[in-house]
Specification:
The complex is a heterodimer of chains A (422) and B (542). Chain A has 11 helices and 16 strands. With 422 residues, chain A is α/β, with parallel strands linked by helices. Chain A has an 8-stranded mixed sheet with strand order 6-5-7-1-8-11-4-12, sandwiched between helices. A two-stranded antiparallel sheet of chain A has the order 2-3. In chain A, strands 9-10 form a two-stranded antiparallel sheet. In chain B, the strands form 2 sheets. Chain B has a 3-stranded antiparallel sheet with strand order 1-3-2, with no helix packed on it. A two-stranded antiparallel sheet of chain B has the order 4-5. Classes of the chains: A alpha/beta (422), B mainly alpha (542). At the A-B interface, helix 4, helix 6 and helix 7 of A face helix 1, helix 10, strand 4, helix 19 and helix 23 of B.
């Protein structure tokens, strides 16, 4: 099977000349998107909004206004009676019926690196000498469409936690900047020349494989074929947000995070299983309240627009949106610096789950008067990961083989999904 | 998922072997396979062989097994194949084009042996070995983001280039103390700052035993108890870091390693929850008398690197073999126990004995292996040997490591061309100081325990190689085609430069025909260069 496959060289040149292989506008994308939605309705998607640095729970979703350590933020009512959140999420407050807040996260790791790893993979870094896969790679492998030319796990922003021992097929495709799109998706030469050189490469590949018959060269060739297919796939148009109207882009907010959320929506529409969008800056040891306010405003705009758009497209029930960081922040305010701050706090914190078929409009668990310890229904990392898997339709007890010969469960023993949610 | 199926089958086979073994024994209860015991009968030291004689022994052993199994051996690799493979394996980069023509045209019958000697004394040999070891010994973890690997590689490279005997090198490594900027070897302990981490790595690298499982419970497949794990770990309990590496990085000071006589100054290495308080004890051996006021590491270092140690020479031999063949005589390379027997037990024993008899001379061992027919076979299958992986009937096709790929690419297109994504803060998985080479390596990094014969890269890597400037270098075309040279010659130069061999007549014909069909010769040559640089033949070590 050559890369040319069903399309003859002449046809390809014709199409190329007609601009079909170039940047497209409107028409194509909508058709593809609805087709993708068709096939994807069989399995779910996930958008992880990763709040890097550990957002203060006491200033976002578990407030104690009017107390000595409560800080200056007020609470507002949401669309669900009895649930109140920070005043800086006015738009999201009106969508509470689709969301569940987990106020009893308790995860133990208080160092950034270890905690981020733990909350992405469900395993502690380095244990057993393995590199554990992140939830994105797990989802790509378990529920991703194998025939999708689009990658099943995309990470927008700086850091990514990869596939670990699951291997390269489930590595995330990294998009450093949503505005710029995928690095290296476009060839350096004109389309016609690219097609020509790809043909030449394929001849070399066939020849080498004929004489060496090695699995390695076959895998090399297959990877390249998939890469070229992606370059030509109309679905790859999804990576280009310049196709969206100015109104839409304004609605999401002009920063990188807003653009990332918009891109995430497009990718989910195009059939991508798992998209992670990072918003950094939450590590507010200093100047906690100013920074949290600004960040909350960004989240409120982008996240609520994302949820609204998904709902409008009939995708909210099949798309789980997760809002979380690696831990919360100290209930006590520190006055070390010029502006008050809060420090790391994994003992009790909050995360939010929206859509995905989750039973919305509820709060899971409760913390004490200071939001310092979990008073009711603790949720540890394993429980949390188990819940995500359950919502996405992944069997979290399943074992995967590893290079050292030791099978590893998707979620380690001891994790139980939150039954009230699923 | 062939790898996982194979490993699963492997594990299952190991268990089956155990149960079959126990069924055969009359009244013996089902016993797990064990690791070597220190009290094994000491045989008389072997008569010393020179490298040429050892090479012949290798072939005698490999060939007799091939015969016994009825598997055909592939013929000798041609000069181009051998040259490229030897360069990649010994100095981590493809040969320069002048070297290719020189070697291909040389007529002396001992040119291969001479090449091996030349490469072993090339300073790149030291840095390539150092990098290979460093990747296995310094784990890439979030805690280690600020730990510089440079000093470690420099120290190791010096040792390899001086041809320091392996037992001395490892002994010095295990007992290293002082600040990192004075003794790069201490990086090993800075990057593995807890007792369990250092124990896992020391036993894996130098004993060839994976103890990790036994950290928390008795090993499920092999007869290693949790107490034995913590017995070995006991030797590292006194190691202390002088400060937090993150802090050191911020203040520009060096982290130091020392052993404290009692609990006192210096950053205490935290013990994991699974830790058991048992006295220090050699794996499979006795409990030595320890002086609580003295450092512990010299005791284990002496035991580990002594000629009597049942693991060290075998582990080192197996690892060197693995580096040259892509597969250990015992495979996986760091999993040497009764349940995972070597494919050629007498060969492994003979090689280990000779390593010892030749004072742990690494160059000697490599010289012997590389001069064997087994090493010099072509990677093209022949007759019925296509599916053989274990008998060394033909050379394995391996993937270039990220380091080999970068160094080879830059040797062709120059450093400036291997452009990267815009500079950001240090990426997850980056080991070194953060220059273009380190960023490239992090982008292409594979798990250090993964199989070298499995292609691990994904779509992002393919996109990067296809569509970023490094594989479209106008400068190279200018250099080769600029003087109005005939197409035939340009093609030949391109193939020599990229694939380290001469093109066949058929290839010359095909490429010149291709170039003639393009818009311009320049465009045509650029396409040929691009295709060669993106080909399997370039990306693989075959």
């Amino acid at each position: 099977m050559t890369m040319m496959d069903n399309v003859s060289r002449r046809d390809l040149l014709k199409l190329s000349a007609a601009g079909v292989l170039g940047v497209s506008t409107s028409g194509w994308f909508n058709v593809l998107a609805s087709r993708a939605a068709e096939t994807r309705r069989q399995h779910k998607s996930c958008i992880l909004l990763w709040m890097d640095g550990g957002p203060s729970h006491k200033d976002t979703f578990d407030l104690r206004p009017g107390t000595a350590q409560g800080g200056p933020f007020q609470q507002i009512q949401t669309s669900v009676n009895g649930i109140q959140i920070s005043e800086h999420f006015p738009r999201f407050a009106r969508q509470m019926q689709h969301a569940a807040i987990i106020r009893s996260m308790s995860t133990g790791e208080g160092a950034h690196g270890r905690a981020k790893y733990y909350l992405h993979t469900g395993y502690k870094e380095g244990v057993g000498g393995l590199h554990y896969p992140s939830i994105g790679s797990i989802a790509a492998m378990e529920i991703g469409d194998r025939n999708n030319p689009m990658p099943n796990f995309v990470s927008i922003g700086n850091r990514s936690y990869g596939s670990g021992f699951l291997g390269p097929r489930h590595q995330p495709l990294i998009v450093n900047s949503a505005a710029r799109g995928v690095d290296n998706l476009r060839p350096l030469v004109a389309e016609r020349q690219f097609t020509s050189r790809v043909g030449l490469l394929d001849e070399l590949e066939q020849s080498f494989h004929r004489t060496h018959e090695a699995g390695t060269s076959l895998a090399h060739r297959t990877t390249y074929q998939r890469a070229v297919t992606l370059m030509r796939d109309r679905g790859a148009r999804a990576f280009d947000i310049s196709g969206e109207s100015q109104a839409t882009r304004t609605a999401y907010g002009s920063g990188a995070f807003g653009e990332g959320c918009l891109l995430a929506r497009r990718l989910v529409e195009a059939g991508v299983t798992f998209v992670e969008v990072t918003l950094g800056g939450w590590d507010t040891h200093q100047n906690n309240f100013n920074r949290v306010r600004q960040l909350s405003q960004q989240v409120d705009q982008a996240m609520s627009q994302l949820v609204a758009d998904l709902r409008e497209r009939g995708l909210l029930d099949s798309t789980l949106v997760i809002w979380m960081g690696e831990f919360g922040r100290t209930p006590r305010i520190n006055n070390r610096g010029a502006q008050p701050g809060r420090d790391h706090f994994p003992r009790a914190w909050s995360s939010v789950l929206i859509g995905g078929g989750v039973r919305g409009g509820q709060v899971i668990g409760r913390t004490d008067a200071e939001a310092a310890t979990v008073a009711e229904r603790p949720v540890n990392t394993l429980d949390f990961m188990a819940t995500i898997c359950r919502i996405l339709g992944i069997d979290y007890t399943k074992m995967n083989q590893t290079p050292i010969g030791r099978p590893i469960r998707i979620v380690d023993r001891g994790g139980n999904h939150i039954r009230e949610l699923v | 998922m062939a790898a996982s199926a194979r490993t699963a089958a492997h594990g299952l086979l190991a268990l089956l072997l155990v149960s079959v073994g126990s069924a055969a024994a009359d009244d013996a209860p089902a016993k797990k396979p064990g690791v070597a015991k220190s009290k094994a009968v000491k045989s008389a030291p072997a008569a010393r062989m020179d490298a040429a004689a050892l090479a012949r022994l290798i072939d005698q052993q490999v060939n007799s097994r091939l015969e016994a199994e009825g598997v055909q051996a592939s013929p000798r690799a041609d000069d181009g194949e051998f040259l490229r493979r030897a360069y990649l394996d010994l100095v981590g980069v493809i040969p320069p084009p002048e070297k290719v023509t020189e070697f291909l045209d040389a007529t002396n019958p001992d040119k291969r042996a001479r090449l091996i000697d030349e490469l072993l004394t090339n300073p790149r040999f030291g840095s390539h070995m150092a990098e290979t070891w460093s990747n296995l010994m310094l784990p890439v973890e979030s805690n280690n983001r600020r730990v510089q690997s440079g000093p470690f590689r420099t120290w190791l490279a010096a040792g390899f280039n001086k041809n320091t005997p392996l037992n001395k090198l490892v002994h010095d490594l295990l007992t290293a103390s002082g600040p990192q900027n004075q003794n790069g070897a201490v990086t090993y302990f800075i990057a593995n700052p807890t007792v369990d981490k250092i124990t896992d790595n020391v036993t894996k690298m130098f004993l060839g035993v994976r103890l990790q499982c036994a950290q928390c419970h008795n090993h499920p497949f092999v007869e290693i108890k949790q107490d034995e794990y913590w017995g070995m770990a006991g030797f590292f309990r006194k190691v202390r870091l002088s400060q937090n590496p993150n802090k050191a990085a911020k203040t520009g000071t060096s982290v130091g390693i020392s052993e404290v006589g009692n609990v006192g100054k210096g950053r205490k290495a935290p013990l994991p929850e699974s830790a058991k308080n048992v006295p220090a004890r050699f794996l499979g051996g006795e409990q030595p008398k320890m002086n609580p006021a003295e450092p512990f590491r010299p005791v284990v270092a002496k035991w580990l690197t002594s000629a009597d140690n049942p693991y060290f020479a075998r582990a080192m031999t197996n690892r060197v073999w693995y580096q040259l063949f892509g597969r250990g005589i015992c495979n996986p390379v760091d999993d040497m126990h009764d349940g995972n027997p070597p494919s050629h037990p007498e060969l492994l024993t003979a090689l280990s004995e000779q390593l010892k008899a030749n004072d742990f001379d690494l160059r000697y061992l490599i010289r012997a292996i590389c001069n064997s027919q087994a090493y010099q076979r072509t990677s093209k299958p022949a007759g019925n040997n296509k599916d053989d992986k274990e008998l060394f009937s033909h050379a394995a096709v391996r993937v270039l490591t990220p380091e080999q790929l970068y160094d080879s690419l830059t040797s062709i297109v120059g450093q400036g061309r291997v452009a990267l994504a815009p500079k950001r803060k240090q990426a997850a998985g980056q080991r070194g100081a953060g220059g273009p080479r380190d960023a490239f390596i992090a982008f292409f990094r594979v798990d250090e325990s993964s199989d070298p014969t499995e292609y691990q890269a994904g779509i992002p890597q393919a996109l990067r190689l296809m569509n970023s400037p490094q594989t479209s270098s106008a400068a190279v075309i200018e250099r080769l085609a600029g003087k109005g040279i005939e197409p035939r010659q340009v093609i030949e130069q391109l193939v020599i430069t990229v694939l380290s061999r001469r093109p066949t007549d058929q290839e010359i014909q095909r490429f010149t025909q291709y170039v003639a069909m393009q818009d311009s010769p320049r465009a045509g040559y650029a396409d040929v260069l691009w295709a060669l640089l993106n080909s399997s033949e370039f990306a693989l070590n075959h």
